[in-house]
Write a structure and sequence with these properties.
Layout lengths: L17 H38 L1
């Protein structure tokens, strides 16, 4: 392929507005943190309950 030949493929798109992208990105990050915290808490509580049930 020569250097003068134009590339073909997916068209470039303009980036979405920063304000809208930032709002959804911030919301998505917080939602991800909340879900991660909830899963870790559920695993700890379930593991503790299982250990207590087996020991007692």
């Amino acid at each position: 392929m020569s250097r003068t030949r134009r590339r073909t493929g997916a068209t470039r798109r303009h980036a979405p507005s920063r304000r809208l992208r930032c709002d959804w990105a911030c919301f998505d990050r917080w939602l991800d943190r909340i879900v991660t915290l909830a899963v870790i808490t559920a695993l700890l509580v379930g593991g503790t309950a299982l250990i207590l049930h087996l020991v007692l």
